[in-house]
């Protein structure tokens, strides 16, 4: 019975939609994957190594100048903390510690400059990273989609990105933009949280 319901749903959706397989889209250019390397600062590398070994680390909060510690209670938490460190910040219970310098973003700056004004989608895992990148590229008309952005606002942002030149950079959190979004105005996509 589940299979019958599934087939009925597929038939109903196909009747009002267009379904194409990738092989049917012969005019699509081949996908090109490019890997850019960014080297951590000495402070990032020390914090990263300590977190990887001991499940604890410290970073200096650039806003307050004080040292802030963070702890990972299990392996999954450790992986998240390591990703945060390479993304230029560290989330603690009480505060977010932003690093003064993030080499990953300097490489992204170079990449965006090479695009010579073409639109780009930047995917970032963490809200703090999305917000910081949106501010960083505000002169390019950046916008963001992440968990705190209401659905009707997301639709306006996507329409703006797709149909105008006001928004040339869209920074999104993949979990918040996983379904039903068309961003064909951009031919470049960058994952920064890897």
Care to give the gist of this entry?
With 194 residues, the chain is an alpha/beta fold.
H-E order = HHEEHEEHEHEHEE
The low-confidence runs, each spanning 5 or more residues with pLDDT under 50, are none
- Which percent range fits the helix content? 25-40%
Question: Tell me about the biggest sheet?
Answer: 4 strands, parallel
Would you report the number of β strands? Answer: 8
Structural class: alpha/beta
Rounded to the nearest angstrom, the distance between the terminal CA atoms is 42 Å
Question: Would you give an account of this structure?
Answer:
There is one protein chain. With 194 residues, the protein is α/β, with parallel strands linked by helices. It is 39% helix and 16% strand. The protein is built from six helices and eight strands. The protein has helices at residues 2-16, 42-54, 75-86, 103-114, 127-136, 151-163; strands at 56-60, 67-71, 89-91, 96-98, 120-123, 142-145, 169-172, 188-191. It has a four-stranded parallel sheet, sandwiched between helices. It has a two-stranded antiparallel ribbon with strand order 1-2. The chain has a two-stranded antiparallel ribbon with strand order 3-4. A hairpin with a 6-residue loop joins β1 and β2 (67-71). It starts with a helix and ends with a strand. 24% of the residues are buried.
């Amino acid at each position: 019975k589940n299979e019958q319901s599934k087939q009925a749903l597929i038939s109903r959706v196909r009747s009002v939609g267009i379904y194409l397989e990738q092989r049917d889209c012969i005019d699509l250019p081949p996908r090109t994957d490019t890997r850019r390397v960014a080297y951590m600062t000495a402070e990032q590398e020390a914090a990263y190594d300590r977190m990887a070994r001991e499940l604890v680390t410290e970073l200096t909060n650039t806003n307050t100048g004080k040292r802030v510690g963070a702890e990972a209670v299990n392996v999954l938490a450790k992986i998240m903390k390591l990703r945060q460190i390479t993304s230029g910040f560290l989330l603690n219970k009480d505060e977010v510690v932003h690093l003064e310098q993030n080499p990953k973003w300097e490489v992204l700056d170079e990449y965006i400059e090479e695009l010579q004004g073409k639109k780009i989608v930047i995917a970032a895992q963490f809200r703090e990273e999305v917000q910081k990148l949106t501010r960083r590229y505000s002169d390019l008309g950046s916008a963001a989609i992440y968990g705190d952005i209401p659905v009707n606002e997301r639709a306006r942002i996507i329409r703006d990105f797709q149909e105008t030149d006001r928004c040339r950079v869209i920074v999104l959190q993949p979990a918040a933009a996983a379904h039903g979004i068309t961003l064909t105005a951009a031919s470049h996509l960058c994952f920064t949280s890897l």
